[in-house]
From TrEMBL, chains A, B:
Keywords: Ligase, Phosphoprotein, Pyridine nucleotide biosynthesis, Transferase
Protein's job: Catalyzes the first step in the biosynthesis of NAD from nicotinic acid, the ATP-dependent synthesis of beta-nicotinate D-ribonucleotide from nicotinate and 5-phospho-D-ribose 1-phosphate. Helps prevent cellular oxidative stress via its role in NAD biosynthesis.
Protein name: Nicotinate phosphoribosyltransferase
Keyword Amino-acid biosynthesis assigned: no
Length: 553, 553
């Protein structure tokens, strides 16, 4: 069963504020900040960029997520007396006491965040967020922002891949709470799996906090807790139209069991009484929501019991919902189950049996989803836990946070590993769209440069290539980042999980299939403008000449 | 730098209570509970067992963790009006309103938890926790308990493996916050990495909440934020003994730079001025805690700058701490660095240079740690992030929670996959110790059975074997589980992280090296007593005969 939840931003907000205290960061942020402060550099206007260097899971795209929590974190950023007292106890005794007063006074009122909107398709090496403000403050924000973006984007991207692998038809249920990194890991997983393309979660708290529709019916323990018909109570059920006395539901079901067994050539004496008792008990409690797990003993046995109870429900006017399979070859079993359900429908003229859903769960991975598309099966809803929430294929996204400007001067780290070099300066990021409406190139320009124009040819330099410049003409140009936070205030409406989910689908929709392929996709081009490329070249040349790898003056 | 924290159970407690609301569970726990309630079975005294089926990471042991949080969760378990209102909105409309009043009245006052103490070495398929009480309540606890135990035990076991791979000498620093599953994933990782054998964390909030010693000095961004000597301020430092006027620290360092370059045959003109400025600035701010990252440009350059600043510090009576390497071949680099440090020590008669520490960080895995033991290197402290907190090798532990008794009758799930069958009944778990003090077998007995006696021969049936019974004589017998919670109260003192950490080391200490081996360890035997084995056989036989897989009567 599923219940849609409303938009519950306030609850989500309270939850995030509580769990991201400003001390949830690495100690070196404070020792470095003390260094800046001691040198009188703490107010120097600086900018950091947040980006990742490789798309996860061997794909050619990622989804950007975590912004909502980052904005709340910035808005509420300040140190309590308790925080400062603790810092006093862990920073070296030589720390000037005035530094702690300085910390106590800090907030994000001078910080400006420009960011890609949450739920947007993004690519490796393009700056997703630019955090600008006093050096001391923007340095202190690093770890918390990375922590909020890394896993959210990773699990959101993973969910999107499950959705792509599954196709739009099947319903996807996230059920990974018990395998996540503790309570909040589970909550984050539920929220961003939904945003990335899942329909439902089993996690009730995620329903409460983020409005994610929740679903679930029964586990094997429910079935195994019953041993005999004596445990079924009440044993009656009223007709849906209420125009009869309550009916003895056990007798009714036993009658149907006989007919079902006859139809399928099975022996009624061989069914599992405890399982039948469990199904009966559940159906009497929730006659509108009958969807039992049918493989506690064997699918054959579970299916007989299901059909008998479901037929009895139908006779009383209720519509049973479906069955869950939790072991073995789900594809084959679902086909067998469907055949039996159709047989019942035909033989007993029960159209409700034609629309029963089959839920498949059991260690589902992206590969399983791909298999579901290639192999005959009748699975309507897929429940995914471990492989979704732990992102088994790649359990972390390597977002980094790099300094690009101090006091108006570009900063660049030049590494022997070209992938580890940074792109200097404050930038604008443009997404170039082709005539068919597909994005084909993301362009990084220096902030003061004019935006590229639709229909106008431009030259640029792909980031990950042999240096051959490209000539392109966009049919449309989108400015990818927006100002999201300034002067202590969030400057765009905070989006609910459902709104961000819609953005994900919209953003993925426009992406060309060749970039969306899960296996061996075409890589997407991220390029530098001529001006930015020239700055990089100049800084590189200067660094080689002067052996001074950072050029600010 | 590292600062030991005190015992801060109260803060830890507040944090956990806030983050494990009773709705942080799967929806089906509520639909099942409704089924029990509707059938009048909700008060039936029942017992569930929590265990995992396979040791993680290819090892033959695991560490049990998460108990502390489970106890607080039990103690505080109750539904608020808001919770119940939300449940009303997601459970089927047919749900009897009286059920919500029932939920509102629930707590754990009738629940008893018997558990292995936190931080104990445990093995696959032995019951770690037994949760007994009214069927409705113990069912509702499932997901939250699994969530609290699974990741805590996994990351604790992972940390213990890093510690075993590293040997006792090296200090281990956890620094995975930015790659964990969101804020609380990071906090849980820091806490249980410490418990599993790490010495330090970079996570300040983990220091505040759990008393984990925190450490850290500087990142590359600090170094790259400096470009010239003009940014160093103040430029003076006082002699440690305070018996001189403040000294021009830049000039002093430049003098040393000349001497160091001469010693090493390097050109002072080739050093990176921004890096030197960053080091100077940090040393002036923290003259007692000088430990810079030296590979922002090149280790050669960073090391020259380090030696110059460190020699200047020594001249003023301070002891520099060490250097951090964050890229490339850490083993080789550390050897080269050590040679230079020794050369300086000898040439300049500076004994402080003999005790400098070398910190190595950069995507360290268990394999890297093993390599550190096999290859020449001079690394004293290792910082581990991603591979520790995400448990890359196996990102989830598969703890399950299975029904073993209802109303005094044993429950058993018999599966075609023997690994998925459960062991029925309420049990005692004994650890049998050999004459050398090593545990050699864990024995599961039915609760009413007398405990095995030291020096007395017994027969038992290994769980994972061909059915051949074993005859063993323990030199000592330990009852592995204790009552931890009953009548709404925690009945054992809540342990601090440091206390649990001590238990981990003690428990690992006694384990025989053949079980501790990281690669291809000998598997440890978990066995059933004769009585328990007979019960299993009887239930299996009964189930085959009656095709009734669960026997309760």
């Amino acid at each position: 069963m599923a219940a849609p939840g409303g938009s519950t931003c306030d609850a989500a907000e309270r939850s995030v504020v509580a769990r991201v205290p400003p001390l949830l960061t690495d100690l070196y942020q404070f020792t470095m900040t003390y260094g800046y402060w001691r040198a009188g550099r703490h107010r120097e206007h600086s900018a950091f960029e947040l980006f990742f260097r490789e798309n996860p899971f061997g794909g050619s795209f990622s989804l950007f997520a975590g912004l909502h929590d980052c904005l709340l974190f910035l808005r509420n950023f300040c140190f309590t007396d308790q925080d400062v007292d603790f810092l006093r106890s862990v920073l070296p005794p030589a720390t000037d006491p005035a530094f702690f007063q300085f910390l106590r006074s800090l907030d994000c009122s001078d910080v400006t965040l420009r960011s890609v909107p949450e739920g947007t398709v993004v690519f490796a090496r393009e700056p997703l967020m630019e955090v600008a403000g006093p050096l001391a403050v923007v340095q202190l924000l690093e770890t918390s922002l990375l922590c909020l973006v890394n896993y959210a984007s990773l699990v959101c991207s993973n969910a999107a891949r499950f959705r792509l692998a599954s196709g739009p038809r099947r319903k996807l249920l996230e059920m990974g709470l018990r395998r996540a990194q503790g309570p909040d890991g589970g909550l984050t997983a539920s929220r961003y799996s939904y945003i990335g393309g899942f329909d439902l979660t089993s996690n009730v708290q995620a329903g409460l906090l983020f409005g994610v529709p929740v679903a679930g019916t029964m586990a094997h323990s429910y079935v195994t807790s019953f041993t005999s018909m004596d445990e079924v109570s009440p044993q009656t059920l009223v007709d849906l139209n209420g125009d009869r006395e309550p009916v003895d539901f056990i007798s009714l079901t036993k009658g149907w069991l006989g007919r079902v067994c006859e139809l399928l050539g099975a022996e009624p004496g061989k069914i599992h009484e405890g399982e039948l008792a469990a199904f009966l008990s559940y159906a009497i409690a929730y006659p509108h929501n009958f969807l039992p797990v049918i493989d506690s003993y064997s699918v054959t046995c579970g299916l007989l019991n299901f059909c008998a109870v479901a037929m009895a429900l139908c006779e009383l006017g209720y519509r049973p919902v479906g069955v869950r399979l939790d072991s073995g070859d789900l594809c084959k079993q679902s086909v067998d189950v469907r055949r039996v359900l159709r047989l019942c429908s035909k033989r007993f003229s029960t159209s409700a049996f034609d629309s029963l859903i089959i839920v498949g769960t059991n260690n589902i991975s992206e590969e399983t989803m791909v298999e579901f598309n290639n192999k005959e099966n009748e699975i309507d809803v897929v429940g995914v836990g471990t492989h979704l929430v732990t992102c088994t294929k790649q359990p972390s996204l390597g977002c980094v946070y790099k300094l690009v400007e101090v006091r108006g001067k570009p900063r660049m780290k030049i590494s022997e590993d070209p992938q580890k070099s940074t792109v200097p300066g404050r930038k604008s990021v443009y997404r170039l769209i082709d005539a068919d409406g597909h994005p084909f190139l993301d362009l990084l320009c220096l902030a003061p440069e004019p935006a590229p124009e639709a229909g106008r040819h431009l030259r640029c330099h792909p980031l990950a290539a042999d240096g051959t410049p490209l000539s392109v003409t966009p049919a449309q140009v989108i400015c990818l980042r927006q100002q999201m936070f300034t002067k202590g205030k969030v400057t765009q409406p905070l989006r609910s999980a459902a709104e961000t989910k819609a953005n994900v689908q919209c953003s993925l929709q426009s992406l060309h299939p060749r970039h969306k392929r899960l296996q061996e996709p075409d890589s997407y081009t991220v390029a530098l403008s001529e001006q930015l490329y020239n700055l990089v070249t100049e800084l590189r040349r200067g660094s080689t000449k002067k052996n001074n790898f950072i050029l600010g003056n």
